[in-house]
Specification:
The chain has 8 helices and 7 strands. The chain has about 250 residues and is of the alpha+beta class. The strands form 2 sheets. Strands 2-1-5-3-4 form a 5-stranded mixed beta sheet. Strands 6-7 form a two-stranded antiparallel sheet. Strand 6 (about 105) and strand 7 (about 110) form a beta hairpin. Helix 3 (about 140-150) runs antiparallel to helix 5 (about 175-185) and helix 6 (about 195-200) packs across helix 8 (about 225-245). One of its GO terms (molecular function) is 3 iron, 4 sulfur cluster binding.
């Protein structure tokens, strides 16, 4: 009886300028394999299914426990984390491809600068002068802290941007993840100081108005973050901010 094997069909690309192509690999099956362990096996012995020596597969990874978001790729047509994609639960042949929303650097490695630049655009951080001790910060009400914690689980994996039909090469839409981060940092007692600045950024081209409400993002998010709830809340917040801007007053 022949040994059990696992077959992979991997979309490869040698440089950002060259055309993608598919290469097939076949590995000996081991219990509890995930996609990352399979890629590591191919890297140790880069020989394709035809028995030809080839170059090792290039991909990104870091934590290997679905926290860093670096190992995002399209697995059997679905964007997800490869560290938690178990071979036993995947239909074979297992097809791996880079996320198409982002430029490909090589093979499965992508450039997620689009998402990180969007986070800079909406000031997705708490600007605090760390040159001296500010003392204890203001406390957040428990009810607000609970839903804010859910938003803080975002690991900038980019899966929601890949799943969103409005994020593509012909659109400047910043995507679901940066939108949700605006709600998170505006909820922070100190972050609220820059609330108007973040909301005004969302009212610019490529902001909130570019969302088509397909809800693919909330279905694909590996952390189950309520992205569409944040988008709905931001629609209300930006409406109030637009009135404030029109009347030139913070009392509206």
């Amino acid at each position: 009886m022949s040994a059990k094997t696992v077959k992979f069909i991997i979309t490869r690309q040698d440089t950002p300028e060259t055309s993608p192509y598919e290469e097939e690999f076949e590995l000996a099956y081991r219990p509890n394999m995930n996609v990352i362990s399979a890629l590591m096996e191919i890297r140790r012995n880069p020989v394709n299914a035809k028995g030809e020596a080839t170059t090792p597969i290039t991909w990104e990874m870091n934590c290997l426990e679905e926290v860093c978001g670096a190992c995002s790729m399209v697995i059997n047509g679905k964007p997800r984390q490869s560290c938690t994609a178990l071979v036993d639960k995947l239909e074979q042949p297992i097809r791996l491809a880079p996320m198409k929303t982002f430029p490909v650097i090589r093979d499965l490695q992508i450039d997620r600068s689009r998402m990180f630049n969007a986070l800079k655009r909406v000031k997705a951080w708490i600007p605090i002068d760390g040159t001296y001790d500010l003392g204890p910060g203001p406390r957040m009400p428990e009810t607000k802290r609970q839903w804010a914690y859910e938003l803080s689980k975002c690991m900038t994996c980019g899966v929601c941007l890949e799943a969103c039909p409005n994020v593509n090469s012909k659109s400047d839409f910043i995507g679901p993840a940066p939108l949700s981060q605006v709600r998170l940092f505006n909820a922070h007692p100190t972050g609220a100081m820059n609330k108007a600045e973040r909301l005004n950024a969302l009212m610019e081209d490529g902001g909130l108005a570019s969302c088509g409400n397909s809800q693919n993002c909330v279905q694909s998010c590996p952390k189950g973050i309520p992205l569409t709830t944040s988008i709905a809340a931001l629609n209300r917040d930006t409406t109030f901010q637009a009135f404030k801007n029109f009347f030139g007053s913070d009392s509206v």
